[in-house]
From TrEMBL, chain A:
Keywords: Cell membrane, Membrane, Transmembrane, Transmembrane helix, Transport. InterPro entries: MetI-like, MetI-like_sf. This is ABC transporter permease. Belongs to the binding-protein-dependent transport system permease family. Residues 80-266 form the ABC transmembrane type-1 domain. PROSITE patterns: ABC_TM1.
From TrEMBL, chain B:
InterPro entries: NMT1/THI5, SsuA/THI5. Residues 1-35 form the signal peptide. Keywords: Signal. Pfam families: NMT1 (PF09084). This is ABC transporter substrate-binding protein. Residues 82-283 form the SsuA/THI5-like domain.
Automatic annotation (TrEMBL), chain C:
One of its GO terms (molecular function) is ATP binding. Residues 6-238 form the ABC transporter domain. Signal peptide: none annotated. SUPFAM superfamilies: P-loop containing nucleoside triphosphate hydrolases. It comes from Nocardiopsis codii. Transmembrane segments: none annotated. InterPro entries: AAA+_ATPase (IPR003593), ABC_transporter-like_ATP-bd (IPR003439), ABC_transporter-like_CS (IPR017871), ABC_transporter_ATP-bind (IPR050166), P-loop_NTPase (IPR027417). Keywords: ATP-binding, Nucleotide-binding, Transport. This is ABC transporter ATP-binding protein.
Length: 277, 372, 267
């Protein structure tokens, strides 16, 4: 064998399942990640307290917020779960529909021309206008709220997936062409894996967005009085700000959790992509 | 630099595990979602107050849905429905009532009634019946409990008369309520000289002097300011001859025609609950608290109830039952809307309000509750 | 139309929107006997890559005929008898090396004449201990070797290579050239190889087709009578230099024969 150029220096890969988990753990819990965030949070905390002491009806004191959280954790947990259910079902439904629709649209341009304008209209329609119609159609249960959330999370995934399915480099398509691969084979073996980075980038946006969507859904869709969105609304109306911000704290925690979930998913599924190198 | 994980011979398996987990989670969530809302209440031991034939007719109507004006707030017309359900009054008249909390969008609620998704709803005032019909919603008012405007204007103690507001800022929560606008106009205030802005829920904007006048509900903001130990002046529209209303029960006209006994007995049960809750406010508010899942301020809602039911009593003449409808007052209220441009013309009021159902269950001014 | 050679007759192709007086390929005639190693070389714009793509069945042509061993390019592709090594390795980054090499055997399963053992192929290109690595862990040269192994995997009748070594440094390039020749001699197939390196063309081929640009056409066909197998002695010997000079001279005239490109500043 003739000499070859030196391989780019890369550490030897170790066998064993421990490495990726250890790497993820270290990255998620390493000091480098938590220290800057903690410092930033502390600074915000001091600024908050300064305002809260001066204007108690603008911001509640942080100990009061902590007090209601600790005083009735079950209330917040059950309402958080209610909102989380809507968020997860909504994003599952919205992203799932977008995924399927993007697949169909990539193979049938006629469908894309028909659907895209409708999708744009749906995206810009304020959901508050749609909510009563959804309740008429689907009743007072979870369904209208899940649909509102799905609508809010649908469009970014659709757009990203459409681009992703089209972003296969042409040399690879040529290779598949000379092998006379069927359209289905090209779709499943090439286009779908290529679109995964785009899909996950969209999910990074819409997973936390689904929480917002669920809260908005609770604001506008009648039926069911549980959920952090309802809590924020009723507490704000009676100026019980400590409940408002306690609920917001729960929503923030949920958002962070959702984002962490997607980050872990990305690491596992996109190990081969430049974004993870 | 990131290390790639060990490559298994079949990466598809690796992808199936998170996929299986996701599917399982979705299945669990769907099961929870479909597990349904609260189970229907068991019938209490209250004896039926109507005869068997009427009872059958009422049951035949199926589940009757009432959508509240705003969550489970202890406002007039909402709290009575909640209490009637909890105390078994609906069972006593053989109506299966399902109470759904509204988001506060009362015009949206009228849309639901018009579509048949709900059968009863509370509207904010009689003017909203006119506005709903103007928007094409098919609803009629069947009872009006409060006959004064519920809106109030709060100012600092330095405002001696409404004219002082010229050159200052007035804050509202979405729009300037028609009775308040009428009040200012009636007192000769030049509205163009007042800066009208939208503010949030925080009433402290008034004591902090960010606005010099603040709109609100008589049952809400005054108490909040009192809690803050702030002094204020309250300006009531009726003192300036402005007519208004609150706590209006509405239903679908055709459905009501087909199920008159249901509508009558619904109002009957509500009226009975009103009397009960006048004496037992705390107990009734407790029932509402049980229904609210995301927290409930019992003290605040008790104050709301007390303020509102007293206004109902004080605005109801001795010779009329609570909930009576006087189309002369309705007309005056409607004119206010026309004056400030929210309605183009005053429609014919007769078809939009039907007091027969209420009258059918009242003898003189007392509700006809035979078991007593 | 005989089954023992590739015949191109009167091939003309103009790209949409381009100058019809200067087609990408004009009246190209070419004959490639089975089992030969043929290079296409020429200045940019001479249509060598276009010609390759037409033979691959990836592009349509306007006039003329293309017959590949008695069949059309599309039928050859349908029979999975064509291997393609594009300019960039075009590996699937989410599959490891072994799965990339075995991919063609898993696509369009019904066609084809059976496939080589991927481990054998990897051994032949010297990558058997990288079988479980992923493309992002490999150097450019290694990736290109995987692409070559992949192309050989379906035992193709025709192997098309579009400047596969142009992005590599000189030493890697030379090593891969010899490795390719070794593979070719073992697996025995017909190769059509596009390059812009004179040295590479002479080292590898039996025949060098020199093309000229604007319009794209065959300028001259030169035979390389170096002995096979071509080891280091042969490619550094005197006859090699003679052949290289001959090709270079032909290229020079080809360059002059083509119309000046619009984007060149006149000297």
């Amino acid at each position: 064998m003739a000499t070859e150029t030196p391989v780019r220096p890369r550490p030897d890969r170790e066998e064993g399942p421990g490495r990726p988990a250890a790497r993820v753990r270290r990255d998620l819990f390493g000091v480098g990640l938590w220290l800057p965030a903690t410092v930033a949070v502390l600074i915000c905390g001091f600024a908050w307290t300064a305002v809260a002491e001066d204007q108690p009806y603008l911001l509640p004191l942080l100990p009061e917020v902590g007090g209601v959280l600790v005083g009735d954790p079950l209330l917040f947990l059950s309402n958080a779960w209610s909102t989380l259910q809507i968020a997860l079902l909504g994003v599952g439904f919205g992203a799932g529909t977008a995924f399927v629709l993007a697949l169909v649209m990539s193979e049938a341009p006629v469908v894309r021309r028909a659907i895209m304008p409708l999708a744009v209209v749906l995206n810009v329609t304020p959901v508050v206008a749609l909510a009563p119609a959804l309740v008429v159609a689907f009743g007072f249960g979870m369904a209208p709220k899940v649909i509102v959330t799905a609508i809010i999370t649908f469009f970014p995934v659709l757009i990203n997936m459409t681009t992703g399915l089209r972003s296969v480099p042409s040399p690879v398509l040529h290779v598949f062409s000379t092998l006379h691969a069927s359209r289905l084979e090209v779709l499943l073996r090439l286009r779908v894996p290529s679109s995964l980075p785009y899909a996950l980038a969209a999910l990074r946006v819409v997973f936390p967005l689904s929480i917002v969507g669920a809260v908005v859904a609770e604001f506008v869709a009648a039926g069911s009085s549980s959920g952090l969105g309802t809590m924020i609304r009723t507490s704000a109306a009676t100026a019980r700000l400590e409940y408002v911000y306690a609920a917001i704290a729960c929503l923030a925690a949920m958002g962070v959790l959702m984002l962490a979930l997607i980050t872990v998913l990305e690491r596992r599924l996109l190990f081969w992509h430049e974004s993870q190198q | 630099m990131a290390l790639p994980p060990v490559s298994l011979p079949r990466p598809r398996i690796r992808r199936i595990r998170p996929l299986a987990a996701a599917t399982l989670t979705s299945a669990v969530l769907l099961a929870t979602a479909c597990a349904g809302e609260d189970a229907s209440e068991e019938p209490t031991g209250v004896a039926s107050v109507i005869d068997d034939e009427r009872c059958e007719t009422n049951r035949a109507a199926g589940t009757v849905t009432y959508i509240t004006g705003y969550q489970y707030q202890a406002s007039v017309s909402i709290l009575e429905a909640v209490a009637a359900d909890a105390l078994g009054f609906f069972d006593a008249v053989c109506i299966d009532v399902e109470i759904q909390p509204g988001t506060g969008d009362t015009i949206g609620n009228s849309q639901l009634v018009s579509a048949g998704t709900a059968h009863f709803t509370s509207l904010g005032n009689e003017a909203e019946v006119l506005q709903a019909n103007d928007a094409g919603h098919d609803v009629i008012g069947i009872s009006t409990y409060g006959h004064v405007p519920i809106a109030t204007l709060l100012t600092g103690t330095d405002i001696a008369e409404l004219g002082d507001l010229e050159g200052t800022t007035l804050g509202h929560k979405g729009m300037l309520p028609a009775p308040l606008e009428a009040m200012l106009v009636a007192d000769g205030v030049d509205l163009d000289a007042v800066e009208i802005v939208e503010v949030g829920y925080d009433p402290s904007v008034l004591p902090r002097d960010q606005v010099q006048a603040l709109t609100g509900f008589r049952s809400n903001e005054p108490f909040l300011l009192a809690d803050m130990d702030e002094e204020y002046n309250e300006w009531l529209p009726e003192d300036y001859g402005v007519v208004g209303s609150f706590g209006v029960m509405a239903t679908h006209p055709e459905w009501a025609e087909e199920n008159p006994t249901v509508v009558e007995d619904y109002l009957r049960a509500i009226a009975q609950a009103f009397s009960y809750c006048q004496e037992n406010g705390e107990e009734c508010v407790g029932y509402a608290a049980e229904l609210a899942e995301s927290g409930y301020d019992v003290d605040h809602n008790l104050r709301v109830w007390n303020a509102e039911h007293e206004l109902v009593t004080s605005s109801t003449p001795d010779d009329a039952p609570p909930g009576y409808i006087d189309l002369n007052l309705t007309e005056a209220e409607g004119e206010t809307l026309v004056d400030n441009g929210q309605l183009d013309t005053l429609p014919d009021l007769e078809p939009l309000f039907d007091p027969r159902y209420l009258e059918a269950v009242h003898v003189a001014t007392e509700v006809s509750w035979p078991a007593e | 139309m005989s089954g023992d050679r590739i015949e191109v007759r009167g091939l003309t192709k103009t790209y949409e929107g381009a100058d019809p007086l200067r087609p990408a390929l004009q009246n190209v005639d070419l004959e490639i006997p089975r089992g030969r190693f043929v290079s296409l070389i020429g200045p940019s714009g001479c249509g060598k890559s276009t010609l390759l793509r037409v033979v691959a069945g990836l592009e349509e042509h306007d006039t003329g005929t293309v017959s590949v061993f008695g069949s059309t390019p599309q039928n050859m592709a349908a029979a999975k008898a064509v291997g393609l090594v594009p300019q960039t390795p075009a590996l699937l980054p989410w599959l490891n090396v072994r799965r990339n090499v075995s991919l063609p055997s898993r696509v369009n399963r019904r066609a084809g004449r059976g496939s080589e053992d991927p481990d054998l192929l990897l051994r032949m290109v010297g990558l058997d201990d990288s079988a479980r690595k992923y493309p992002h862990e490999l150097s450019g040269g290694m990736r290109q070797r995987v692409a070559i192994a992949r192309a050989f995997g379906i035992r193709p009748d025709l192997l098309l290579m579009d400047e596969p070594f142009s992005a590599l440094d000189e030493f890697t390039r030379e090593a891969l050239q010899l490795q390719l020749l070794g593979l070719w001699e073992r697996m025995s197939t017909t190769v059509l190889f596009v390059t812009h390196s004179v040295r590479e063309a002479v080292t590898l081929s039996d025949t060098v087709v020199v093309m000229s640009a604007r319009p794209g056409r065959v300028h001259e066909v030169l035979h390389v009578d170096l002995p096979r197998p071509r080891d280091r002695d042969v490619v550094t010997g005197p006859h090699m230099h003679v052949l290289e000079d001959r090709v270079r001279a032909s290229l020079q005239t080809a360059w002059e024969a083509g119309a000046a490109p619009d984007d060149l500043i006149p000297l």
